[in-house]
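Module 6 notes. Inverse folding takes a fixed backbone as the condition and produces residue identities as the prediction. Think of it as a translation problem where the source language is geometry and the target language is the twenty amino acids. Below is one complete input and output pair. Work through it position by position during the lab.
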């Protein structure tokens, strides 16, 4: 389903982080959370919680520390497999709740299909198998006995589901047929996994649908793509670019692939956010998925598949995190507000705890996710650092002076801004602040992303932008050989450049001209302007977004 899960160049993964590359070495060392306080950088001695690496100094090591110290994951003794702790799994559940409701509104029903795939089923569709062959994990033994026929662990579920499609679709009244499942998949190709971004087992949803006509299939492809945009922009506060993948980068065995592409400015790398594929009739041919239309003629169905994974969480961490740890958008934060009583000597702490409990009840009654930290074995300073590291959007402090003034101190995680809020206005102000944080995180991320998009008309301009860690929007002749040549010419320690997508919003069209989506593949820039391809100097047909990627 997610083409990049299968295809991302190894160079990109190696450049990302030594998260797994030094696994053996890390076994000899203590995890970041176990490093003695004395070993921390200056300024961290009071709490022992601070990150030891700055995001801008060593992005890979920073990310490795954040996912562990932010209580997102624990490492497992099988490389590339991670334990998702409650803090990260709650974020995934927020994404699930939103997306599951939206796809059900599209008439999609949830089901579950087996984890195991027979070899016969897997090899039914040759192109599909070739695309996933390097990463398929096989079960070859049961106990001490070798299996007569190896069994594959699903890398995706087309070959598991489509025999059932063939059984249940008979006539036009059985269409459309729409199934989704929330599950895990296993892909075993790469050498240097990274938590959330590229793991050997990951969680996702995969939708599989069948229609009577291509027009219906096309409409769903883009409807689902926009749902994925909403997950990133409305929930995770991450701007994405909607586009179509090149023939080289599209899903194996599919007709065309659409994508939402995110960008990590600090590393200068794009990252595929989620994909929605039109599979055409290729799988219908292979699995004999046919229906009888109103005229009693037998026809092949048109199929789609689409998926979004726990990669979303990794992208969120990369985009919003800072030198203090995670920065969570309020709409997905497991805890939106942490309330911390701040006691002093000779002060009745019970009154502070009672005020914290009363404040929590008010906020919870308003539908907010709130937690009180009344642990008496940690100082307020330690608690501040702890919840900052975990990215809670707002901190509410209640001290003796606050009680005397009938107010609370509210601190934003994203900016550090502080304000005193009257207790009788706390619900309204906290709700306003959470919405402000959500919108401002998106605005900040969009500005940073937009500042990293450069137009290039020549190879020299293209290479300069690439070396400056930018995404490059360039006119392209849309030829596979040219794309492969660009990859070969840009390959290096940082990985090769490739097409990220052809944006649906194509620039430089004459005023008043609009291009319907169904005409997208026919868009020819040279018809309007005589623009040449930046890499081949042949007539350009499309604007393509290029870059290095994860």
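Target side of the pair, the amino acids:
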């Amino acid at each position: 389903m997610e083409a990049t899960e299968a295809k991302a160049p190894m160079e990109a993964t190696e450049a990302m982080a030594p998260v797994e590359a030094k696994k053996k070495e890390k076994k000899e060392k203590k995890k970041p959370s176990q490093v003695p306080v004395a070993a921390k950088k200056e300024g961290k001695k009071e709490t022992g919680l601070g990150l030891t690496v700055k995001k801008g100094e060593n992005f890979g090591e920073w990310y490795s520390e954040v996912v562990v110290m932010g209580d997102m994951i624990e490492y497992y003794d099988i490389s590339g497999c991670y334990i998702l702790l409650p803090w990260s799994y709650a974020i995934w559940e927020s994404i699930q709740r939103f997306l599951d409701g939206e796809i059900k509104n599209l008439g999609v029903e949830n089901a579950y299909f087996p984890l195991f795939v027979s070899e016969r089923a897997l090899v039914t569709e040759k192109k599909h198998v070739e695309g996933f062959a390097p990463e398929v994990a096989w079960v070859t033994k049961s106990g001490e006995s070798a299996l007569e026929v190896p069994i594959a662990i699903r890398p995706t579920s087309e070959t598991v589901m489509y025999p059932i499609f063939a059984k249940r679709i008979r006539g036009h009244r059985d269409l459309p047929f729409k199934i989704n499942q929330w599950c895990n998949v296993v892909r075993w190709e790469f050498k240097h996994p990274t938590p959330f971004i590229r793991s050997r087992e990951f969680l996702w949803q995969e939708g599989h649908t069948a229609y009577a006509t291509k027009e219906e299939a096309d409409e769903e492809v883009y409807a689902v793509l926009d749902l994925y945009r909403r997950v990133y922009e409305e929930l995770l506060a991450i701007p994405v670019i909607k586009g179509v993948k090149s023939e080289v980068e599209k899903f194996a065995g599919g007709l065309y692939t659409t994508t939402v592409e995110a960008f990590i400015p600090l590393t200068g790398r794009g990252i595929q956010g989620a994909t929605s594929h039109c599979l055409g009739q290729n799988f219908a041919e292979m699995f004999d998925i046919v229906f009888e239309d109103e005229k009693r003629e037998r026809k092949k169905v048109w199929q789609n598949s689409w998926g979004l994974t726990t990669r979303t969480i990794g992208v969120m961490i990369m985009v919003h995190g800072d030198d203090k740890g995670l920065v969570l958008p309020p709409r997905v934060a497991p805890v939106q507000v942490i309330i911390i009583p701040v006691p002093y000597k000779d002060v009745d702490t019970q009154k502070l705890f009672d005020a914290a409990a009363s404040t929590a009840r008010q906020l919870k009654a308003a539908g907010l996710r709130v937690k009180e930290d009344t642990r008496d074995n940690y100082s307020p300073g330690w608690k501040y650092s702890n919840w900052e590291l975990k990215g809670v959007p707002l901190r509410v402090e209640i001290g003796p002076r606050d009680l005397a003034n009938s107010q609370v101190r509210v601190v934003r995680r994203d900016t550090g801004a502080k304000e005193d809020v009257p207790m009788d206005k706390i619900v309204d102000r906290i709700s306003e602040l959470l919405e402000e944080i959500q919108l401002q995180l998106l605005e900040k991320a969009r500005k940073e992303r937009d500042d990293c998009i450069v137009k290039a008309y020549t190879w020299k301009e293209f290479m300069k932008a690439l070396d400056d860690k930018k995404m490059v929007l360039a006119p392209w002749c849309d030829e596979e050989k040219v794309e492969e040549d660009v990859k070969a010419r840009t390959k290096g320690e940082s990985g090769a450049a490739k097409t990220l997508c052809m944006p649906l919003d194509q620039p430089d069209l004459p005023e008043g001209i609009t291009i319907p989506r169904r005409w997208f593949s026919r868009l020819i820039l040279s018809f309007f302007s005589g623009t040449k391809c930046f890499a081949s100097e042949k007539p350009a047909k499309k604007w393509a977004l290029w870059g290095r990627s994860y």
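Reference fact for the lab report: The chain is about 35% helix and 25% strand.
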